[in-house]
Amino acid sequence: MRISEDMFPLGLGYIGTMLSEKNHFVRIYNADFDRDIEPFSYSYEYSFSHQHNIVEALNNDGHYIWKEVREKIELFSPDIVGITVMTNKYAVSLKIAKIIKKINKGIKVIVGGHHPTLFHDEFLINKNIDFVVRGEGEETFLELIKELESNKNQFTEVDGLSFRQHNNIIHNRNRKLILNLDSLPYPNRELLLDKEDYFPKLNFEIITARGCPFSCAYCGAFNMWGRKIRFRSVQNIIGEMLILCRKYNIDQFLFWDDSFTMDKKRIVEFCNKLRNISDYCLKWSCITRLDLIDEELLQQMRESGCRNIYLGVESGSEEMLKLIKKGITKEKIREKSVLMKSSGIKYSTFFMMGLPGETKEQILETYNFMKEIGPDNAEINIFNPLPGTKLCKSLQDAMVLSQDVKWENFSQESMENYYTKGMTKEEFSNLILEMAKRFDEYNHSQAYRREIKEGHQRLAESYAILGNSYLKYNQLKKAICKLEKAIELDCTCILGQYHLGSCYQKIGDLEKAIGCFKKVLQINTINKKRFWAGAHFYLSEVYYALNEIVKAKLELEECLKLNPVHRKAKENLVKYEN
Hints:
The protein is of the alpha/beta class. Helix content is 50%, strand content 11%. The chain has helices at residues 10-21, 44-49, 52-58, 64-76, 90-103, 114-118, 120-124, 138-150, 222-225, 234-248, 264-275, 295-303, 318-323, 330-343, 360-373, 390-397, 425-472, 476-489, 494-507, 510-522, 528-545, 549-562, 567-577; strands at 80-84, 108-112, 131-133, 161-165, 168-171, 205-206, 209-210, 230-231, 252-255, 283-288, 306-314, 346-353, 377-382. It has a 6-stranded parallel beta sheet. A 5-stranded mixed beta sheet has the order 1-2-3-4-5, with helices on both faces. Strands 7-8 form a two-stranded antiparallel sheet. β9, α11 and β10 (283-288) form a beta-alpha-beta unit. It is elongated.
């Protein structure tokens, strides 16, 4: 049943931190985390073919996971347990609630998250559930705890809360969305139970916004966060990054927003401020949409430390793209993929298969399209008709979805989600496993290529450093030999091109020097100021030596734009103007 869920549960993290700051003793237990699974060992073929483990565990009271849950609760001895519930964990949450009440009937069980927000009645029919928190949970949960502490039991005043009263189910009015996200505390990772098992496995995800204005037919995020997007301030985001960096000695982050680049102006501000933090070199990744990136923005992102962008492609079939209302075409995907490849930022893509009415040919079309655009990594999932989405409603209207639905099958890794056309269920399952195998093979081959490429890059950098050492001691033949070897290994080795240009300048081969310095200016680099300003300066010297004064002055001006305090550039500009 266990999966390697190495993400910190941010929803519980926000609520737990708010409670902790109000002097409540809080711990967060992530039962989906497997300390024995190595990170990055994920296989789609294994995952898709082992989803039955969840059903088997639900039917087995003696399963080790229930024993572990029971032990954790008995050891902690809580007064209140809050459970966040995604749709496919509905039955799991009821099982945990039953375990809790068997340990101590006095423990209050509160559920929240996407599924309880939509199906509050369904939970409260179960006597082991005391309260349902609907929508954003931070303020609702905190107010509920205050009422429980006061013993007044005036729960009707808590917005966003559903509960039982005298055998009736009461739904309070909806809570207004939190407009100022900066008012929320940074989620405290120290609240994790057994936190020593997580590090260094734990990924450091950050959410910088809530809400999404798009209308993808398969996505139900709006049910929780609304359509209107709310942003955290750039200063607030960087503040959290720096705290995590200092506390855990990490420098890599993943922004887990639905579409991180929604507001271009905000992202440019973020990139500029991040670049100016001189004490740290922070690296980051994000999730966004293909139609929310452009060349200028990608350059800004790369220069501020962006290493990977996750993009939703979803399908290689034009018909399926129209069905899911993604708002993009294959031609647009091709265009943006070319842009990503030239940006110097790695990119990963999300795909789905098994969409309603999809044929075998269309699923194969998606696989072939994935290979055509050639991402650095390709994620594949099985379509899952999430409650509250347009596609789920259309399946319900067509009476394809049973009324007696088994929510545990509503997983993007479950082959029970069978809504395709022209295939039997067995044929669909076989095709899914074949696609999983192909995607696994593709990702492994890409990882191998990256390993070789990164090995070449590291070796090239070593040759470039050695070449620079010879350059400093004016051993120019040896320097050129090593620097040319660096460029042979990696033509984008900016150190190699930069120092080789200096060597050619010193021996008087000015045309080759110009070629090297121009190459430096073409290479995407996060060290733009250092290398690009220097390349412009040395180009100005070469042009001056060739008596091309106008070009020399233009290069100095470009140098000073990048580095306004470049002393020699200022001196030479005065000299050239005279």
